[in-house]
Amino acid sequence: VSTMNAKTRSGGEEEASGIRNETLGESGCLGETKRRQVIHVAYVIAALDLTFLFMQMGVMPYLGKSLGLDSVGFGYLQTIFGVLQLVGGYIFGRFADQFGARAALILSCASGSIFFLLMSLSTSIPLLFLSRLPGVFMHGIPGAQKVITDMTTPSQRAGALGKLGLCFGVGIIAGSALGGTLSTKFGIYIPAYVGLVGSLINTLIAMVWIPLQTKPKSDHHMAEHSTSQSGSLFSIKEILRLMKFPGVMEVFIVKVFAGLPIGLFMIMFSIISMDFFGLEAVESGYLMSYFGVLQMVVQGLVVGKLASHCTEMTLLRLSVFVFAGVGLGMALMRTVWHYCIIAVPLVFAFSMLATITDSILTKAVPSSDTGAMLGICASVQPLTRTVGPTIGGVLYKQFGVPSFGYLQLMINLGLFVYLLKSNIPLGETKS
């Protein structure tokens, strides 16, 4: 019976995809122009959201220190934020499926406004911890991904999602620079005020420019009859149901484990940059800006081009293979200049893996479940941030920086062999 239901859903998706193509053909130039405008607005909202987020990330250690928060307390603060993001990612995705991408983006931007408001009022440690609570619904990137997923055909999706990397690069560069400059010249709470005003503007942009219904009518009609639309916003049963679609579990496992060692390394990077590379705070900022530029170039110019010429499985294997090479390079690196060279393939593999797996996973499930799937994908980073400080700290203290590289090499070589030997059904026929 479950097999027949799965075939029925797959058939319905093929029929809906056909209707969508007909609708796109009938809509003409005006409809295509409108869709592009909405996608560009989603990019703008994502870039601004990330800029404000990186502003507060750069200022938060100094704000905590000024309130008397020690390094252990700051670790607890980061862990709480990671747990909230981890739990909220899937809930946010389900909310987007049930109420639409526009409502989800407005919720994210409004939560950001409350986040920065509470941060601007944080004159004590308890208030600072309280300011983390709105983080459960702060998911600007998944919200933008949901808009893009709804507004593009499956063949366009990887390239459109890849361009979000430009927003990430803008956020790193602008946010890091603005946070440091504003807090130094005008006071430690000024970035919070700027974030508050900016998040309110983002909310207005989402309300005015994002249409009430971003899905084609055929997909919206199917969503009303989908089993995923019933029940609460958080359901373990729904997560397990999505993981049972062909290829979903396999690709998700690759997504989680391929980038895990690098994620652990990046969590410990502030300590590594001081102890291992001997960098000052200003030099660390320059290095982060370098990463931002690489991210913009790779996802803005490279990922989309490759996605239009290669199959997604080929690109998935390529990203895992490059990750293995990056692991070898990290195991052998000794200076910050070695790391700057390794950063090029590292950013390429990281960007390609994130974009391709998101594209594959949203295609593998019904259109009514893309928000939930994106929410599950968005929970990977918060999960790493939650468990990373403990695991990364043990690795760094006991085995040193090369241990991250060797772990990266072994895991990704195993995943590469697995991808070569396994025949993962990607469900691309539905496109």
From TrEMBL:
This is Organic cation transporter-like protein 2. Residues 35-426 form the Major facilitator superfamily (MFS) profile domain. May act as a transporter of organic cations based on a proton efflux antiport mechanism. May play a role in the transport of chloroquine and quinidine-related compounds in kidney. Plays a role in the regulation of lipid metabolism. It comes from the Eukaryota. It is found in: Apical cell membrane. Keywords: Cell membrane, Membrane, Transmembrane, Transmembrane helix. One of its GO terms (molecular function) is transmembrane transporter activity. The chain crosses the membrane at residues 41-63, 75-93, 105-129, 160-178, 190-212, 252-272, 284-302, 314-332, 339-357, 403-420. GO terms for cellular component: apical plasma membrane; nuclear envelope. It is a multi-pass membrane protein. The keyword Membrane applies. InterPro entries: MFS (IPR011701), MFS_dom (IPR020846), MFS_trans_sf (IPR036259), Tet-R_TetA/multi-R_MdtG-like (IPR001958). Its main location: membrane.
